[in-house]
Amino acid sequence: MKNKKFLRSGLKSLVLGVLSLWAVQVYADDLNVCAGKNEMPFSNDKKEGFENDIAEIVAKSLNKKLNYVYWDDPRYAVGFFLDKKKCDVVLGVDSTDPRVLKTKPYYKTGYVFITRKDREIDISSWNDDLLKERNFRIGVMPDSPGKVMLLQINRFDDMFDYFAEKQKYQSTRNKYVRVDPQEVVNDVASKYIHAAMLWAPEAARYVKQSKEPLKVQLVKDDAKKSNGESVQMHYEIVMGVRKDDVKLQQALNKAIDEKRGDIESVLKREGIPLLPI
Known about the structure:
The structure is a single chain. By secondary structure, the protein is of the alpha/beta class. It folds into two domains: about 1-95 and about 240-270, 3-Layer(aba) Sandwich (D-Maltodextrin-Binding Protein, domain 2); about 110-235, Periplasmic binding protein-like II (D-Maltodextrin-Binding Protein, domain 2, 3-Layer(aba) Sandwich). It is about 35% helix and about 20% strand. The protein has helices at about 1-30, 50-60, 75-80, 145-150, 160-165, 180-190, 200-210, 245-260, 260-270, and strands at about 30-35, 40, 45, 65-70, 90-95, 100, 105-115, 140, 195-200, 215-220, 235-240. Strands 1, 4, 5, 6, 7, 8, 9, 10 and 11 form a nine-stranded mixed beta sheet that branches. Strands 2-3 form a two-stranded antiparallel sheet. It is globular, with a radius of gyration of 23 Å. The chain starts with a helix and ends in a 7-residue tail after the last helix.
């Protein structure tokens, strides 16, 4: 009787072991992507973002099943999700990000000034005098190069009420407060503000959708702080994996090379202005 009990226990352990190995193999054959649950136009849990489309292209190139692990707060995408192996890759990473092992860039773009065409506003650089006029209302995102530059030219206080409104009067201190880029684009269209400076990928879709014709001007990469330090306006974008996952990095690099045309088609369809890599 005791031998039968040991036999059943042994068989159970063997079956569980085989199932565990199978589960690990299935997981390894998948591409597990960390993505924002509500971060349009990049991604959402309905797979409506342009990064959802790019992830699909890459997964097919790798012949892997695409899975998503969604986060609500981008501050934890790397430390809490990627590093803890809840996912394997993050898209849309700045090429200077030290937290991840990076692929080769799959596109390069920058921040843009957005204005109504009929207002004939001509701005292309933070050195333009119009931006320094106190009655010129310009919207930027929290903790962005735009905020840095408004502080540099002593214009942040002039726009403080607008920023508080967009943040629903919530403090961003130790807290992620999402500002919808579509709202800011709509504020330009409605003449609530004269202009906005937004990251091109977050704004392009809403510029295209606007009923009022809008002008988009890529911001010149010549912004500087008062101490001479550069404030970057153009960025190369990569995919990020765990620092020890060289195998996946190399596979993704190959997929980027093979599918670069398809990826660029997605970006151009989105309306994102592309710069040479």
